[in-house]
Amino acid sequence: MVKSNSKDKEVPKKAPKRKKRSSSNRSMDTYSSLVYKSKVKADKKARKRADDLADLPKNPVKRFFARLHPKRVFRFIFSMRGVKFFLKCGLALFLLAIIAIGGLFLYYKKDLDAIKLEDLQVADTVNTYLDRNGEVLWEDKGDGDYRLVVEGDQISTYMRQATVAIEDKNFYNHMGVDLWATIRAAIFTVAGKGVQGGSTLTQQLIKQVYFSDESKDRTVTGIPRKIKEAILSLEIEKMYDKEELITMYLNESPYGGRRNGVESAAQTYFGKSAKDLTLAESALLAAIPNNPAVLNPYNIEANQALIERQHKVLNSMVEMEYITQEQADEAKSIAVLDTIKPEVDQYENIKAPHFVLAVKDYLEDKYGVKTMRSGGYMIKTTLDYNAQKMAEAAVAAGAEMRNLNGSDNIAMASVDVETSQVIAMVGSVDWNVPGYGEVNAATALLEPGSTIKPVLDYGPLMMQRTGQNYAPGTILKDENIDAIYCAGYTGSCKLRNYTGAFYGNVTIRKALANSLNIPAVKALYINGIENSLEVAHNLGEKSYCADAGSAGGLSIAIGSGCNIRLVEHANTYASISRGGTYKDIAYILELKNSAGEVIESWQDSEGTRVYDEQVAYMVSNILGDAAARNLVFGSMATSYGFKVPNVWTASKTGTTTTANSSQTKDSLMISYSPVVSTVVWNGNHDGSALWNSSNDLVRRVINNYMSDVHLNLYEPAGRWTKNQEPVRPEGITIANGDIWPSWYNARNSGMAVVKLTFNKYTKMLASECTPADQKITIDATKMLDPITNKEVWTVPDGYNRDKEDDCSYKTPTVNIVSDGTSGLKAIISKGSRNITGYSLAVNGVTVASGAVSGNSVSLGYKPTGTEESIQLIVKDELGYEATDELSASEISAYSGGAQKKPTPTPTATPVVTPGN
User: Fold this and answer.
1) d(C-alpha 632, C-alpha 588), whole Å
2) Which range (194-203, 208-217, 669-678, 715-724) has the least confidence?
3) pLDDT at residue 113 tops 60
4) Whole-angstrom Cα distance, residue 357 to residue 342?
5) Which residues, 6 or more positions from 851, have their beta carbon under 8 angstroms from its beta carbon?
6) Which residues, listed in sequence order, are joined to residue 876 by a DSSP beta bridge?
7) Spatial separation of the C-alpha atoms in residues 405 and 520, rounded to whole Å
């Protein structure tokens, strides 16, 4: 306010007038304001960051770990700065992935230039199987109108829908590769939820056509193949429409066995064209390509798994709305497997069918199902069709005897000893028998019974070892060992021989030859289950207790609880026949592809020695000793099968019993020579009991085949001679009536030699009253039984150490007297045993002999007076010989008719010294 000089009132002073600002000035102000605000915001962030860092330790290491504190990390993640950070990283990784994938595609695409997708097609497949001499066994090309390639309109709509539903639900939407399916499969695999496929139908088609040989590689090294598949899948989707692609897929896919292509599968399994397949049939076929080797409708063991997958296919079709739930339920209710045509129909004119199909399975397992089904292979096998015909004839002869034991099936496997090549195989009594004729019992798992004893028990026992050693002449006492055998068992348990008897002190030779169970269990116990199984497996018994191991217990010693395969069993005995050297079983001599290139050819090898050839010889020597079997087998020991005319064989029989009874279930026999090893099985296809334990049938089959194959095949070929036996290896010695290995001696035998005195006539241990002239001192052996720790004595046959002589035995006497003018006669006192006969010798030459009845016998001889000696011998049933001899003067007197001495009247029997 301003005052005037007058006393007037004060008046307000006007503010100066503000100049109006230009638009350019206003823009500058806005910019300055934004810069200012930005600077203020940046300063604020800087101060906040500085304050945040001020709280951290000064030490660099501590500062680093302090930054990783969960609260700080959590705050960062959910801050704007964190979000921006992760977005940047994600974008960078995405760009790198795009670059990497593009680089990989470009890198591998150069390897695919030679593949002409426009020429993609499916070819026919034919594999030819030959025997070793070039005989055609089978042309594997299917039966009837075998078509692999069909047009799309010749395939049932159900079949296309079922395949898409189970294999690639997104087939009609993707461009060859389903990225999300691939990611999902990878996540499931990494998460341990099982391996899941991420390949599309297009990728699978590419794999089947171009990468079948590499498709078995599911490891990291298979990634390049997957990339190539993806590249080609993207390319092929540009050339063919979806219907063309699924048609090619269905023509190419494997459907079990050798059936490539849906048309082949439809005709083989259902006897109809692919265009006529029903919903249930289509779903069943669509289930197979997932695992064609297993989900083969003819693979009875996998039928349940196949039906379960068929139901999965139907459920997937419902989910994709191809069919209704009612249609799915109706299809599930159909027993579709009952409509499958018998597999035998497609094998018309096949020779040695069980063997050929075993070879087929072997090749598909080795090279892959898809590879072998590409066709054009020439397979020369080891089978000799001449031997095969002999085997089939022998089995046919055995089939005529099935009424002897109520059996319905027979199988055989025969192996060449030198090479381990399978030369003959009969898998059933008749390939054409419905239900089980096509099942190959020669490769199936079967209990071996006592045929396992030489392999598992006695061979390993007779190997050289530290401590006590064993040989065919070693005693293994046959006695009750239930306390050891049944240890750990619950319920009823006992170990007995087939006859139910105990045979006491028996040698290993007798024990094995007569198939005694108790010594066999002792042998396994001594050697140890694990050790024995290792030897058996190394010899070729690959399947025996392969899973159970020692858990089977001592019962595996007698072939119970574990299984063998006949072809492996035959090869195991071939190893023994070779002297203890193992060679792999051989089925293939040569494999050629369609271009004539040799893919595989058989080469012989030295094999792997499992045990010393002396051990193998001892086993074979026992099994070839027909006389040693008579303890149990009696006259059968030298009957057919055990003794093959003009053919030396080692053999062993065996039987098995049903699980819940003592009824015989299987009958087996193994027989081998230096050149051929053969095993025969007989039983019922369903495992039911036989009527009896007769082995007549298997012996007949063995006898016929082993005779035929040796005399009519191996001998004409110059590979064998009549009655050829194994060559005795260096080191084997003969002593005490048996054979012994070079390492066997008094120190490691576990036996002590003790001299014992017996009455040589009664065979009882001598006592104080035993006459001196009746005594004999012999060597006996004493050892401790390794199982019972009891003394086991071995004395020569007939001698009884357990019974002492009671001196009740009286010897016979004899006197020569004149019988008047007719000649000489004998006056005999028989003693305590019957007289078995007499003999009269003149000048050392027997002139009369015969039986004795009564106390005298006319000798029918009159002296002439020129004889130098006349001697009479009478013998009793214990072998004692009483003699009387005339002197020269007595001879002269008898020749003139004079009587030498009065005829004695038999009374009490005097003791006469032998020879007097």
Assistant:
1) 42
2) 208-217
3) no
4) 15
5) 836, 837
6) 835
7) 27
Count of CB atoms situated within 10 Å of the CB of 712:
13
Q: CA 573 to CA 415: how far, in whole Å? A: 9
CB atoms within 10 A of CB 279: 25
CA angle 433, 438, 440 (to 5 degrees): 125
Alpha-carbon distance of 579 to 404, in angstroms, equals 37
CB atoms within 10 A of CB 612: 19
Residues in the chain: 916
SS (H, E, C) 548-561: CHHHHHHHHHHCCC
Separation CA 461–CA 475 (nearest Å): 13
Give yes or no for a contact between 502 and 479, defined as CB atoms under 8 angstroms apart.
yes
Q: Six-digit token pair at 34?
A: 């934004």
Bridge partners, residue 774, by sequence: none
CB 672 within 8 A of CB 577: yes
Cβ neighbours, 10 Å, residue 647:
23
Per-residue tokens: 115: 């593949």
- Both tokens assigned to 397: 């002869």
More confident residue, 682 or 823: 682
Q: Round to whole Å and give the CA distance between 477 and 479.
A: 6
For the packed helices 223-239 and 201-210, what is the interaxial angle rounded to 10 degrees? 110
Residue in the structure block whose two tokens are 């003699």: 883
Question: 447 or 225, which is more confident?
Answer: 447
- Structure tokens given for 541: 């018994």
Q: Tell me how far apart the alpha carbons of residues 115 and 823 are, in angstroms, rounded to a whole number.
A: 116
The one-character DSSP state at 16 is P
Give the per-residue pLDDT at 604.
94
pLDDT, residue 14, reads: 52
Note the Cα 446 to chain centre separation in Å. Answer: 9
Question: Does residue 188 register a pLDDT over 70?
Answer: no
> Residue 598 CB: number of other CB atoms within 10 A?
10
**What mean pLDDT do residues 783-795 have?**
82
Residue among 375, 350, 355 at smallest CA distance from 415: 355
- Whether the per-residue pLDDT at 260 is higher than 60: the answer is yes
In this structure, how many other beta carbons lie within 10 angstroms of the beta carbon of residue 757?
Answer: 14
What are 195's two structure tokens? 């391996």
pLDDT of residue 190: 52
Specify which residues 370 forms β-bridges with: none
End-to-end CA separation in angstroms for the chain: 188
Confidence of residue 916 (pLDDT cuts 50, 70, 90): very low
| Beta strands 127-130 and 378-381, pairing class | parallel
Q: Which amino acid does the sequence have at 132? A: R
Residue type, 286: A
| Dist CA 598 CA 336 (whole Å) | 42
Non-local CB neighbours of 422 within 8 Å, separated by 6+ positions: 355, 382, 383, 413, 414, 415, 416, 567, 585, 586, 587
Neighbours of 871 (CB within 10 A): 17
What does the DSSP assignment read for 229-282?
HHHHHHHHHHHS-HHHHHHHHHHHSB-STT-BSHHHHIIIIISS-GGG--HHHH
CB 693, CB 728: distance < 8 Å: no
**Segment 399-408 mean pLDDT:** 96
Please choose, from the candidates 139, 124, 133, 259, the residue with its C-alpha nearest in 3D space to the C-alpha of residue 590.
133
**Tokens 């395939």 sit on residue:** 155
Nearest CA among 334, 353, 351 for reference residue 342: 353
| Residue partners of 305: CB distance under 8 A and separation at least 6 | 294, 295
**DSSP character for 868?**
S
CB 652 within 8 A of CB 620: no
CA gap 364, 370 in Å, rounded: 8
Burial of 600 (0-12, 13-18, 19+ CB in 10 A): middle
Residue 826 CA to residue 816 CA, distance in Å, equals: 5
**Separation in Å, CA 536 to CA 413, 485, 530, 549, 606:** 19, 21, 10, 12, 19
